[in-house]
Input
Amino acid sequence: MHILIGHECGVAAVALKKPMEYYPKGGAIYFLYLMLNELQNRGQETCGFFSFNPNRTRTLDGFKTVGLVNDLFRVKNPEDRDRILFEYAGIRAEGHVRYATSGHSKGEKDWLDEAQPFYRRDGNPHKRFVLGWNGNIANYRELKCYLEERYGVVPETSVDTELLMYLITYNIEEFYNGNREPNFLDVLKRTQEKIDGGMSLVLMNGLGHIVAYRGVPGIMPLCYGENENLFAVASETSALARIGIKDYKFFKPGQLILYNDSLKSVQLGDPNNLRACFFQHLYFAKIVSVLDGLGVNEFREAIGDKMAEIEPLRGKLDDRYVLVPVPDTSIPAARRMASRLGIGYEEVLIKNPQAGRTFIEKDNMRKERMQIKFSYTPGKVEGRKIILVDDSIVRGNTAQMIVSEVRKAFDPEEIHLRSTCPPIVSPCFYGVDFPTFNELIAHGYNDKRVLEEELARRFEANSVSYMTIDGLLELFDSLGFSRDNLCTACITGNYPTDYGKIRLEELVSKL
Output
């Protein structure tokens, strides 16, 4: 069975509302650079951009690279940077950052082949487009068979974005019918009917029209906004705020937006059928972002309050205890938790920014990156009773390494590990990289207490404790984000789409 994984990425697009001479050098790609830097947290392996300029022979032009956004725009070399801003200056631009965790890349060429945006060439500018997306197609296998049988498609990569590109291409052909321009309402409506999974996409065609869509049931985030100078779409509000757009809105599930000097919004699915991935608030999103109306920092601080309420050592704590966050995403929760418990708080683990996010790496890369992920600040917590707070425990490799390294670095009297996420017991088929049962350290444990005791022994910790599912859902409810609007498949086994359920049944049958 072929299931693609790890399309937890960032997409962005921007359009100028005035002639380019009113803007900094590069026009749209100058602002796109700022936006992609704000989305770097969502992808650190490959990135790319395309711009639209009606005065160029190639109205759509751009490139991709392995590495970070600053590598893409050559910011360390002012001459190269200025050349890129001049050569690719445009009035529209689209970009993407990606974790290269799907497929089986073996070298830089493979990574570049899988990098986004994907470019669909065509002699007709109405049919030419670039495509970037965040998500995962749960019915990848069925869609691949459909495209092979009906159109003879033989994909060149194992990235689901390639299949999506072909599907959109053939739907454009179907609705073109000799008209000057395909109706993207019809095109995307037909496209989404064939797709099951998490999907937020941005498309820019050869005429500079921007099309953005958040699929049903809205698992992956997407927002948009505009001011007197710019219109923009992005995975997170932090990217919009970075270019001065403070009045933003969140795509509803099934909402399609078309922008060509003016904005048109249509609804292709039930706008109330929202099942947003809770893991975005907990882990992926930038702390300054707002997702579907709920601030990420607000959520993470509130989960610290909830963790303090359920802390097993509550009532037994003294001044020997000190709370230490595992950076970076757990810091707001840990700081609030320490305050509520009335114990010391020290940030003595320093994350190497080049280490990336190890739980969504391939096995060989994960082991290498864990070796360089943290540095340890001496002199503050030696010999004390340490409570380590992490955002989640997925495979357990990182947690076990951190406990071991903390013990070596600080010789603590005790080590207690806490996870702000409940036990992850089921695979994700919608875009987060834990796709099989055997990769999940919590799978197979029906009793949370037994799991915690087993992990404490395995990690050589004094205790391990997770946030509870009820506690997490109560927290969302209390913040005005109904639990009914969440996808919690990875912690509950309840999948919000048909093929999520089918994929689960297939894996269960193999146990």
The chain has two domains: 10-274, 300-509. The domain at 10-274 is CATH 3.60.20.10 (Glutamine Phosphoribosylpyrophosphate, subunit 1, domain 1).
